[in-house]
Amino acid sequence: MESIPAPLGLPHGVVAHRDSRPAAAAERIDAVDSNDVRGPVGAPGRIGGVATRLSGILLAGAADPDSAAGESGVADGGPGRIAGAAGRIGGVAGPVGGSPIRIGGVAARLPRALGSGAADAVSLDAWPGGWRSRVRLVVDADGRAGVHRYRSTEVIPDLRCPQPMTGAMDGLADQRWTPGAELVVAVDGDGMRHLVEIAPPEPGSGDKRHGRDRRGSAARRGGDRNSTVARRAAAHSARAERVVDGTGRAVQYVSGRRWELSATGFWQPHYGAAQCYSDVIAGWSDAAPGALTWDLYSGVGVFAARLADQVGKAGAVHAVEFARTAVTEAKANLRDLPWVDSRAERVERWIVEQPSTAPDVVVLDPPRAGAGKEVVAALTDRSPRRIIHIGCDPAAFARDISLYRAAGYQPVGLRVFDAFPGTHHVECLAVLER
Ligand SMILES: C[S@@+](CC[C@H](N)C(=O)[O-])C[C@H]1O[C@@H](n2cnc3c(N)ncnc32)[C@H](O)[C@@H]1O
Q: Which GO terms describe its molecular function (predicted)?
C-alpha cells in the first residue's frame, strides 16, 4: 500500500445541514450560505444517517457481493454533520458540530471493508468558484432552466449552486428555452463555455424521464444497471442538439495530449479529475513495453492513451466503450497511437469473447452501478496481472471489490478522491493483484 499524504484545507468548506442529505454526484446542491451547503433541493432525511448509511453500505457491500446498492438494511445513525474543509475525506479536524459521524469515516472504513491498509484519501484541487465542468439542466413548461426536485419530475427553476465552474451558468436564468428540452453546459480545457440545447424527447421514444415520477421502484432501489443504461441510451437517442454558445466541441487536455469531443459527451465532471485519475493509473499500471492491456468503459480513451504510452507500438490496448460517438472520437483523438484498438461494444459482451490469454493490466471505469458479477467473473477468469478499478459510488465500488476478492484478487493500493464536493459520492480507485 503506497502512502501519500492527504492535502488538507479545501477552499470549499462544505458543511451539510442536519435536515438534509448530501447530494449525489450528478445532483445539483442548494445555494451556499456562508460555510454551509444544503443537500439536494427538497431532499428529506438527516445527514448523520447518510454518513452512517454509507459506512454501512461499504461494510455490507464488501461482505456480501449480492447486496443491493442503495439504502436497504442500513441503520440511520441519527443527527450529525459532515465535517467541513479539513474534516472532509482524509482530513484530521473534527466535525463542525456535535456528532462524530463524518464523511472522513467513510474513507477510514473503506480500506477496512476492503481488507486493505489505510486509504490515501485526498482531495482534487479546487478553486474558488466551483469544480463542476459539466452541468445538465432541464427546462420547465414555461421555458425556464432548472433542476429536478429530488426523486421527482418537478422542475425547480433555481440555478444557484456552488458547484459549477465560474461563469458556467451565466445568463441561463435570463433566457427562455424550449419546454421539455435539456441544457448541457460544458466548460472545456481552453476555458470555453459550450451550451447545447437538446430537444425534448419524441413522444413514445422510450425516454420516460419526463412522464414518470422518478420515485418509481427502480429509482427507489437506486436503479438497476440495465434500466439505467437503457434510460440513458433512450435519453440520448436521436435528439436534435442546438449549439447556443461555444462550438459544441469541447477541447480537453491530459498529459499534453489534446482531445476534442462533443460537449454533450462524457468527460470527468471535476475539471481536474481526468488528469488526476490518469496519473494514478499510469503510476499503478506499470505496463511493460509490448504488453497487452485493456481499458474497459473507455469513453474517449483518456486512460487508453496512458496505457498506450507505456506499452508502445509493440504492445496493444483494447479500449471498449458502448457509446458510438465516444468511440469515433477516441479513434480520431488517438489516431497517432494505432496500437489502441477502440471498439464500440458492450463490455459484458466483448469480455466473454476474449481468448484466455491473460492481459497484463486491465483498467475498468464502469458507470455508477459498477461492473457487476458477470464482468468481474469473466475478467478474473482471464487472470490479468493487475486490475485497476474505479468507481464513484462507494457502495457499488465495494461490491465490485468484494467480487475480485472472492476470485482471489486483493487490493494492494487504494485512493479516494473527493471529486464531487458537496455530494456523497467520492471517486475510489483500487489496484488489485492475485
Ligand atoms: C465513468 S465513464 C468513464 C469514461 C472514461 N474512462 C473517462 O474517464 O473518460 C463510463 C463510460 O462507460 C460507458 N459505458 C456504460 N456502460 C457500458 C457498457 N455496458 N459497456 C461499455 N461501455 C459502457 C459510458 O458510455 C461511459 O463512457
A: rRNA (uridine-C5-)-methyltransferase activity
Verify whether residue 428 is a known catalytic residue: no
- Identify the three-state secondary structure at position 415: strand
Distance CA 58, CA 74 (A): 10
Say if residue 258 is exposed, middle or buried (CB neighbours under 10 Å; 0-12, 13-18, 19+). exposed
Q: Which residue CA neighbors atom 27 of ligand 1 most closely?
A: 299
Per the structure block, which three cell numbers stand in for 264?
Answer: 454533450
Does residue 285 line the site of ligand 1, with CB under 6 A? Answer: no
DSSP letter for 21, please: -
Enumerate the domain spans of the chain: 102-129+270-433, 134-203+225-245
* Residue 333 near ligand 1, beta carbon < 6 Å: no
Under 8 Å between Cβ of 195 and 182: no
Ligand 1: atom nearest CA of 366 is 10
Lowest mean pLDDT among 22-36, 38-52, 126-140: 38-52
Comparing C-alpha atoms, which of 75, 25, 85, 27 is closest to residue 51?
A: 75
Residues 251, 51: Cα–Cα separation, whole Å: 37
Please state which of the ranges 99-108, 166-175, 359-368 shows the lowest mean pLDDT: 99-108
C-alpha of residue 254 to centroid of ligand 1, in Å: 18
CB 46 within 8 A of CB 76: yes
pLDDT in tens, 179-234: 999 999 999 999 999 999 999 988 766 554 443 333 333 333 334 445 555 555 55
Mutate to test the pocket of ligand 1, among 266, 333, 425 (most ligand atoms within 8 A of CB): 266
Does the pTM surpass 0.80? The reply is no
To test the pocket of ligand 1, the residue of 226, 260, 297 to mutate (highest count of ligand atoms within 8 Å of its CB) is 297
CATH 3.40.50.150 fits 102-129+270-433, yes or no: yes
What is the SS3 assignment for 229?
Answer: helix
Q: How far apart are CA 45 and CA 259, in angstroms?
A: 41
